[in-house]
Amino acid sequence: MKKPQLLDKQTNMNFVKVIIVVFCIVKLIHAQLLLNHAYLGADGPNYIKGFLAILDDGVFSEDIHLFYWPAGYSLFIYFCYQVIPSNPLMVLSVIQILVQGISIYVFVKSVSVFKTRATLTFLLTTLLIVSPTLYFMSLSVGYESLISSFYLLVLGLYLRYRTASDHRRVWIAFLIALIMAFIVFIQPRFLVTNLVLILFFQVFKLKFSKVMTIGLILVLLGNVASPALLAARNERVHGAFMISSNFADTLLIGAGDEASGAYNENSKGIDCKLDLSSVRNRESSLTACVLNWYLENPGRGVYLAKNKFLYFWTPWSGPISKGTMANNPWRKIAPADLLEKYLEFSPVRQILVLLSWVYVFGSFLLLAFGAIHSRRSRNTMLQILGLASVVVALANTLISMVTIGDNRFRVPILPFIIILHALGLIGIQSFLKERLIRLKEVPNK
Question: 57-93 in b/e burial notation, b at 16+ Cβ within 10 A?
Fold first, then answer.
């Protein structure tokens, strides 16, 4: 049997460079043509209001947009303002586009160090570049693009870490710590994802050593210090050592007898007796009230958890889409949305609903094939990519099942999902090749 072709590293990476540069240029031109050079994401207006409050009153502004929502992304926009005061959103779009391009390049280059099929490298590059959601999110005001890009960069750096010398490992660990710290700075909800990744990285076929311990300490410090800075700001301004004040409200939206599990959909919440003596006490009493409701209504809680699970994995567009993706620019041109809008016939909608569920369960099958293929592979790199993607997907699905079902929460971990889908396609290809070879080897009777 002919052996799979291995990468010609230099040739392939030059090709990858050209592709990434071309797409970055296309997106930069696209950004230049937009009003204010950026789309508004789901919470884009709120982050901009927080940024404007910082302009007026400084970092310690009492504006609610810097407390109800984590202040990190508004502070990032303020940094962009310091670069070019006349056009901070253009700076933001440029940074997000470049970070996305660099992260794809570093990741693919790190993958190419291992003996990997050229087909997989090409497939990963193509899927990451042409993904409409990743493309448009890099042009939008919102944390999703930066976090998805930085997670891809973290994966690439970890692959480098495994083959680096001890001296280089310390610096790579330091860089990973900075990136993870920035991730939880602009969206602290991903602290859980970071901790899951850290645990996975530290236990996956690596022996503990002095260098590894130093790297672990650096990464953990970065993840703790970053959200602590946001909490310290809120302690000074509002007297509450909290990262943001929306966690309990998010729990409330996803609970109740009339809730569906989706964001603000037929939910009247729960009757709670709140301690309004302080913001912190309100948050604590509301959280306790929602958790008690789940304990008292386990059947309803399981039903809502099932809904949230499905909503988290629904398509970005179409009749079964559930989440806060209305401001996603892709939805303006998404075929499913256009068909539903302009062909308001019952059979058309039913067909779209059927196709949407085929998409969802087809995605699950590819994820499963990807996980199985990586697990059975003898290539350590494929095992790392597959299992890391599985644990991240599971962790974020569980978080959504506890809070609300929103497909927008899937965007920051989209690179992990794309990796599993690519591995799934390669796994199916390998399976079909093996079957074909076996059929050819069967003697004619």
Answer: eeeebebebbbebbbbbbbbbbebbeeeeebbbbbbb
